[in-house]
Specification:
CATH topology of the largest domain: D-Maltodextrin-Binding Protein, domain 2
Number of helices: 10
Number of domains: 3
Structural class: alpha/beta
Largest sheet: 5 strands, mixed
CATH architecture of the largest domain: 3-Layer(aba) Sandwich
Radius of gyration: 24 Å
Strand content: 15-25%
Strand order of the largest sheet: 4-3-5-14-6
Helix content: 25-40%
CATH class of the largest domain: Alpha Beta
Length: about 300
Amino acid sequence: MSDLPLHELQAFAAVAHHASFRKAALGLGVTPSALSHTVKGLETRLGVRLLNRTTRAVSATEAGLHLLARLRPALDEIAVALDDLNLHRETPIGTLRLNAPKAAAQSVLPPLVSRFLSLHPQMQVEVVSNDALVDIVAEGFDAGVRFGESLQQDMVAHPIGPAQHFVVVAAPAYLARCGRPQHPHDLANHNCIRVRFPSGAHFRWEFAQGGHRVHVDVPGTLSTDDFQLMHRCAEQGVGLAYAYAWQVQERINNGQLVTVLDDWMPPAEHFYLYHPSRRLVKAGLREWLNLLKDDGECRG
């Protein structure tokens, strides 16, 4: 069996890891049908069923799990060995996969991606914007971007981009109709536009004053995961909104929105670029971190 093609083993490992032919095919850049054919060919060669398949799910068999446990370290070492060839090139080649929340993808990443690609034209950058808490290792990302409070302790993290300020805003007409809150607890008597995470949980509005932090599960008749909808509805007088300052600054400047509870807003926070460890860092990620250090964006 020493002549088994490496791509068949990689195909099986990808499907077993994702428990999905569709997700694995997307990551490998092939069609699900071609991937299924490859895995079936491997099973035929080995004479062992590696995957259980139903119309709704894919899972590794006991034999498949055993093979995957032995394969994974070897495949990781091969991937790193091939990537280390970039050390002998003037320009690294490959794909850098990043996961980031929508706000980070819109604010801190664009100038960095632009500079990175101009310096490394043979690299590709794939950014997946998702406000869910994603396991970047399980999903095959090289690094992610999150606020510090959301990071796992075993991650290496570097502050990235400018500090993020938050504001609570409302339309002047709404404040004239419903009054201006003076304390976070006053929000219980207001209509608030709530942000819903992909998990289904609502964001609890965060406030701080004199070292005292308050988290408020605000009431409201509108919930959304779309910031633009939230801002537009706040502008239309639907209710109060908790927003990134840079996203609503123009509306504040032209008087469409007014800030409230300014004395209660928490200190500005940085996004963090994070990755699993300092060892086995792919060449593309090393170059990205070097770019951040050179620009003074990375202070970790």
